[in-house]
């Protein structure tokens, strides 16, 4: 795992499992810990250990950028008692309900679901949670506006065009519109 300090109180954790990579956001401060995604279930203990090396606070909020396993798998280990925030279209899948199957036991639903922008103030940071569908129908972007840092989930991947998950609402036209909206919103020096 690579831990990179993005700004005061804000870190990016980059995890690898097999040939796949995922990045998480970790905001630490007096209000507690806010996570942007949780990684896989298999990496949750390692993520927890790295968080504890930075701070011994409690994970209070988890924002899920979308409902793929590499972004939600560690939420049970990392977020016991935390408030989950996700797009309203992600709720069924976050409950473990896939296709015609019933929800899995022990899966927590998001306490807050959104379908339009949500503004938060946490650890002294202004945070915008912005719906940006395209990769799936439930993509969210988490923008720490006063720090100039955005976490994009799988909307932008290094050196490759992100796959559109058509089985979970991915859509090329929505993707193009979402990227255009984000380019217009973010300053040129956003990280």
What would you note in describing this structure?
There is one protein chain. The protein has 191 residues and is an alpha/beta fold. Helix content is 19%, strand content 32%. It contains five helices and eleven strands; from the N terminus they run ββββαβααβαβββββα. The strands form two sheets. The chain has a seven-stranded mixed beta sheet with strand order 1-2-3-4-5-6-7, covered by helices on one side. A four-stranded antiparallel beta sheet has the order 8-9-10-11, with no helix packed on it. A hairpin with an 8-residue loop joins strand 9 and strand 10. The protein starts with a strand and ends in a 6-residue tail after the last helix. The model has no long low-confidence stretch (mean pLDDT 89).
Topology (SSEs and partners):
Layout: E1 2-7, E2 10-17, E3 20-29, E4 32-36, H1 44-54, E5 59-63, H2 69-72, H3 75-78, E6 83-87, H4 91-94, E7 112-114, E8 118-122, E9 125-131, E10 140-144, E11 149-151, H5 172-185
Parallel strand pairs: 4-5, 5-6, 6-7
Antiparallel strand pairs: 1-2, 2-3, 3-4, 8-9, 9-10, 10-11
């Amino acid at each position: 795992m690579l831990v990179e300090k993005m700004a005061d109180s804000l870190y990016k954790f980059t995890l690898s499992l097999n040939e796949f990579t995922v990045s998480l956001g970790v905001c630490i401060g007096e209000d507690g810990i806010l996570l942007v995604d949780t990684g896989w279930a298999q990496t949750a203990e390692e993520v927890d250990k790295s968080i504890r090396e930075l701070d011994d606070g409690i994970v209070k909020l988890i924002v899920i950028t979308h409902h793929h396993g590499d972004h939600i798998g560690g939420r049970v280990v990392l977020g016991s008692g935390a408030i989950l925030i996700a797009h309203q279209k992600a709720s069924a899948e976050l409950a473990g309900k896939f296709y015609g199957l019933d929800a899995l036991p022990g899966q927590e639903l998001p306490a807050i679901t959104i379908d339009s922008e949500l503004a938060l103030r946490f650890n002294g940071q202004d945070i915008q949670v912005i719906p940006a569908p395209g990769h799936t129908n439930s993509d969210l972007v988490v923008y720490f506006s006063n720090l100039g840092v955005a976490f994009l989930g799988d909307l932008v991947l290094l050196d490759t065009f992100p796959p559109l998950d058509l089985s979970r609402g991915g859509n090329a036209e929505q993707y193009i519109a979402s990227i255009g909206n984000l380019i217009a919103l973010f300053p040129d020096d956003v990280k």
